[in-house]
Every structure is written in structure tokens, then in C-alpha cells.
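Regression check, (2R)-2,3-dihydroxypropanoic acid case 322:
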Amino acid sequence: MPGRIVVARKYPPNVVARAKAEFDALVFDKAIPMPELFQACRDHKAEAFLFSGGNNQFLDATNIAEVPPSVKIAATISVGFDHIDVAACRAKGLIVTNTPEILTGCTADTAFTLLLCAARRFGEYFRVMHEQGGWKAMGGAPLGTRVHGKRLGILGFGRIGQAVADRGRGFGMRILYHDVARKIPEQERGAEYFASFEEMLPHCDFLSLHADFNPRTAKIINARTLALLPKGAVFVNAARGGLVDEDALYDALTSGHLAAAGLDVFQQEPDFDTRFAGLSNVFITPHAGSATHETRDAMGFRALDNVAAVLGGRAPIDPLWR
Ligand code: DGY
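Current build output:
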């Protein structure tokens, strides 16, 4: 008798096919709000659901009581779990899992692409070539900021931060980082540790965020910390929009303090602050850090592996609490 699950948003066809082949799956083709998800779980007598955060999917103290008792596991198809109150899930006895490791490489690729495109003004070049009939419209290509050989500061030196450092090393960059604790030498691989985030900032030609979003890191990028970056620095965020005070970032980009920014994430998603789309020195993407066929399939498969383990009476592979 296959387990009964609800798939609460649109996932890649391979993930949906596997969900249907291995489980009695009720599948939605768009992200449904949590009350609808809980009702679907009740109707389907589901033992598990797959979801992913975003503006309308979260699990916290305000709605945890609504999770029907039949549900044993909530599997988020994401590495980030700031949409989940893990303590509330634990208090209820609801297993929650995420999909770590799998998306490290693609997210690091995205962050470094944002860095290059923002620094080298590729967004402006793209628009003039695609939409304005070519470079004659520019009156000469506007000059960007050199990347190779510069200093790359990284906030959050976990798996993704370290993978971004690897890409920076490939460009001959000097790597600086801040995290709550210093990493072992095998993880640092020559990167310079700053115990104080603020002391690192004046040394960063580029700053890339790879920290979790939590009360300690909320709006860690604000008017005060942005002012500590050297004039002409380039800022990159492929982590979480909540790390940034967006008004302060907008001011730093329009005042000329920052040369440019590459942004994949925003405080509000998908209804992001469109002021950033109007700035020629900002290169933006739609929270697409892990958005490749290979990685999104692997993330979905990992979530299904977690569900299969729990419904089969085994321990989850990626539990968020033990
Ligand atoms: C993650 O997996 O946390 C990515 O940011 C997608 O939400």
C-alpha cells in the first residue's frame, strides 16, 4: 500500500512522475496557500506533504496546529528553512526535512554569475544589444569594474559560501569571510577569517551573502554596514532578501556608493521591489539560484527519499530536528 502524499506546488515533471509512481500522490500545479494544503491533506488522508516556502507556504506557531494528525513528515524542497519554525514542528512531533548539499554548486554558480554581470555591466550590454539595436546606441560601452585579482568578502562560510570562494579563487581573488565561528583549515583553504563582520567590510571590493536568515542576520545589510564598504564596491545576494534593508541598498546604489549589485533574492517574493529593476547598475534574477534541470530534479528526489524513509518506518535522511 503506497504512502499518501500531497505535492503542494509545481515541481519538475521528473519529480512529479516519481511522486506518482511511488506514492498515492495528490499533486498541485501551483503553490497553494497553507490552509488549502492542510485541507488537501485532510481530504487525501495524507501522511506527508512536499512544499517549498515562498510567500504563501510557511509552517510556524500560527498554523502548526492545523497540520492534520495523519501527517508524519513535511518535506521542504529547499535547503533554506526560514519558512519553518523547527521548534514548533518538534513540539508537535512533526518530522521536517530539507534538501541540503545538492544545490550548493548551482547556487554558487548563480552568485558568481551575478557578481560578474553586475561588475561588468552585462545587464546594460544585454539590453543595448537585444533591445536598442546594438552598441552604436551606447556611444561606446560604459566601463565596468574589474573582477579578477580583487578582494571577495563572503558572509556565511558554509557549503555555498565555500563554493563561491572556490569560484573566486579561479579568478585569482583574495577571499575574506565572516561566520559565527572560524572554519577548519581544510574549509578555509587560505581564506582570511574576520571574527567581526563590520571589520571585514572596509576590505571588500565585492561582498557576497551566503548566511541563513534568522533574527541575528535580519537586515544585517543596512545603511550602517553598507557605509563600511569601500566606495565602488559590488554587492551580491543569492541567499535571502531578509538579510538586507532594501531602502538602504537602494540608496547606496543610487548615491554611487555602491558601483553595482547582483540580486537573486528579495524581501518580498515574487512581488519584489521593482525599483531595483529600474536601476541600470543592478543585475537581477528571479530567485533562480538552484534553477537547473539537474538540481531541481535532485532536490525533489531527495525530498521524496526523505518521505519514503519516514513512511517506510526508517529515520529521515535530512531531519531538521532529532
Ligand atoms: C533554497 O533551497 O533555500 C533556495 O533558496 C530555494 O528556495
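Comparison notes: The pocket of (2R)-2,3-dihydroxypropanoic acid is lined by residues 53, 78-80, 103, 289-290 (CB under 6 Å). The chain has a mean pLDDT of 97. No diff flagged against the previous build.
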